[in-house]
Amino acid sequence: MTSVIRAFRSEVLKFRRWTVLAGSAAMVVVSTFIAYLTFHQIASGATGSEMSGLIAAFQTPQGLVAIIGQARSVILAIALIQVSANLAAEWSQGTVRNLLVSEPHRLRWLTGKMLAVVLFVLLSMLLTLVISGGFILLLAQGQGIDTAAWTSGQGRRIFLEFLGNETIALIGVGALGTLIAILTRSVGAAVGIGLAYILVLEGIIAVVAPQVSRWFPGRVFNTIVGSTVPLVGPNPSQGYPAAMLASLAWIAGFAVISALVFRRQDVTA
Fold first, then answer.
1. Alpha carbon distance 241, 262 (integer Å)
2. 31, 64, 138, 268 — which has fewest CB within 10 A?
């Protein structure tokens, strides 16, 4: 446990680098901008079939989450980039060998490192939701829009449920990014393959075999969030409990495979 904590602390120090903080800043700025555009369209009276659901939910307890949740694909994509690039960089920069010399227990080092990285991503997500949500609340109040339903007991419960499901989704994306980084050992390959799989490949499979694709990791991570607020993601056709169990199974599977591969991997640089 001591070596895990030591690896965790050493990784936390790296989060002060501007390149790491830039990813979190991008998550906040882009997500807030998307939330603003969504709010502006609704408040300005925009119409259309793609807006009907958001307009109907605007004055309900789901209104705030429906607006800020429009950027969740951006949050997941940036989280995947941060996790996979952070780990793969240890090979690209040639530092992994030195790290394993100082900490020969590979899995302890990997556990400490990934705990720190995933915690950083989760804190970035929480900061993003708080800032974008606060910004939309201020905008709405400034324009005289009633936000009582958003901040009611039911509104707060919906936000917490959304936050909890989004946390599971980000942990799942982080576990997937970890596995891809260990397998590729390259920043470019890890980021490219991860984004291509989540954003492109699963979408293609969903068109060809929708009944099969609903159990794929990206799909179940997405649908558990949509079960709380359908406007921010599809509702799980297999039911929320089954989708949640599938999400946890994928996370556990990614973690086990990552540990097995990394433990036996030949590190020469």
1. 32
2. 268
Long-range contacts of the stretch 222-228 (C-beta < 8 A, 24+): 222/169, 224/165, 224/168, 224/169, 225/69, 225/72, 225/162, 225/165, 225/166, 225/169, 227/165, 228/65, 228/158, 228/161, 228/162, 228/165
Instruction: Read off the pLDDT of residues 239-253 as tens digits, 9 standing for 90 and up.
Output: 888 989 999 999 999
**Would you say residue 14 has pLDDT above 80?**
no
Question: Cα–Cα distances in Å, from 115 out to 12, 77, 227?
Answer: 10, 19, 27
Domain range annotation of the chain: 2-264
Tokens of 165: 């499901």
Average pLDDT, the chain: 86
Q: Which of 84, 85, 116, 104 is nearest to 10 (CA)?
A: 116
Per-residue model confidence as pLDDT tens digits over 129-146: 999 999 999 999 988 888
